[in-house]
Amino acid sequence: MKTSSSKDAGLDARRTALALLDAVTIENRLLSEVLPAKTARLEPSDRARAQRLVTEALRVLDRCDRMLGPHLSKRPAPHVMNALRLGVYEICGAGEASHGVVNSYVSLMQERQKSSHFKGLVNAVLRKVVDEGAKWDRLPAPMLPKWLRKPLLADYGKEVVVAIEAAHAQGAPLDVTLKNTNVDTLMALSADLLPTGSLRVPNVSQVTKLAGFEDGDWWVQDAAAALPARILAPQKGERILDMCAAPGGKTMQISAAGAEVTALDISESRMKRVVENLQRMYLPAIPVVMDALEYETKDLFDAILLDAPCTATGTIRRHPDLPYAKDGSDFPGLFELQELMIDRALSLLKPEGRLVYCTCSLLIDEGEEQVRDALARHPDLRVDLEALKIPGVDPNWIGPEGLRTRPDFWPEAGGMDGFFVTLFRRS
Ligand SMILES: C[S@@+](CC[C@H](N)C(=O)[O-])C[C@H]1O[C@@H](n2cnc3c(N)ncnc32)[C@H](O)[C@@H]1O
Hints:
Protein name: 16S rRNA (Cytosine967-C5)-methyltransferase
CATH class of the largest domain: Alpha Beta
Bound molecules: S-adenosylmethionine
Distance between the termini: 64 Å
Low-confidence stretches: 1-7
Largest sheet: 8 strands, mixed
Organism: Pacificibacter maritimus
Number of strands: 12
Keywords: Methyltransferase, RNA-binding, S-adenosyl-L-methionine, Transferase
Radius of gyration: 23 Å
Number of domains: 2
Order of helices and strands: HHHHHHHHHHEHEEEHEHEHEEHHEHEEE
Mean pLDDT: 94
Shape: globular
Oligomer: single chain
Strand content: 5-15%
Family: Belongs to the class I-like SAM-binding methyltransferase superfamily. RsmB/NOP family.
CATH topology of the largest domain: Rossmann fold
InterPro entries: MeTrfase_RsmB-F_NOP2_cat (IPR049560), MeTrfase_RsmB-F_NOP2_dom (IPR001678), NusB-like_sf (IPR035926), NusB_RsmB_TIM44 (IPR006027), RCMT (IPR023267), RsmB/NOL1/NOP2-like_CS (IPR018314), SAM-dependent_MTases_sf (IPR029063)
């Protein structure tokens, strides 16, 4: 690994960003899986720079490709294409000095024998892009890849999908959930209080340095992700199962409300994060590491929150790598697992108990369709629509099966993640 010198300032971060983009688009890995290993040897400032560069470029990858299209008679090898994409993003999207950007990506091509003969192409194409920079702002919002755009078009229609894509390009603000409603914390964070009770914090560079982090006054949680536990409305002393708990955002909401919460997750490493998060917040919970489909208990629960494993397509604002790392092939397996988990949850619930089912997905298959199927399988089950009408939730977001949020909601305030939430009771 080379180190930065004044001559090649930014090269280490760019090399790593290119390796990360290759890992996502060629090896189909999620950034969260590859970031630790690929950035381990970088200086903290370069690590942050590489992460920012690849994340922001992924957000506008379709735009980069549109800029490059007219200058490429044939798509070059993926590694070369990714260098061009990063170069375009840096020149047009980030407004970096074009001379340094072009030189860096040409140098990176020279570093590998296989790509060294593309250095002339990279040089020529990026220079042409510099001349056409003004085109960038006139390009439409980046489109999702076809494999994901197609089902979303079927679910929502073109107008909504275009609005969702525009919201994805904007990225996501930082939202936090307060442990206790505390005006001092609100003031110290200079945050906006959102209609649903979450706080939106402006201009964050380092979350751990924000007021109240050390004291456990709040945790990071998107405003939409905070809705399922609010809808569950945990009561002091109730026994509640958080059936897919890690990393623990909803467990902490339930615990902070004074309920006795069992936090279950199949992943030992992810459960460690739940425990760490609970410790930082000084909140109790009973951690259980096991497959929810095998979990049994004699003492049925008063309420269950099932935040089922899903495609996470509602979180693309935060994870723009997802549409490029995935191709939808694992989706049917997830839909089946969600169905099994709903049935399992019902078997662990008191007859008068309530089950909140939610997914951070935009796909109807993982929300409304799961509810319709569950009602057909369990004739004694009903959806409690009244329970979904909590403060700040627009009644238009509620359909016959439950509450649907989308990234294009609250556009002026900065949007929200896509979620589906419903509350089941037995008739
Ligand atoms: C959407 S995440 C949960 C997020 C969490 N509720 C929160 O608010 O922080 C889904 C979780 O389901 C867990 N999971 C996947 N399959 C599972 C299974 N069969 N049993 C229990 N947990 C499972 C995953 O490890 C993952 O942590």
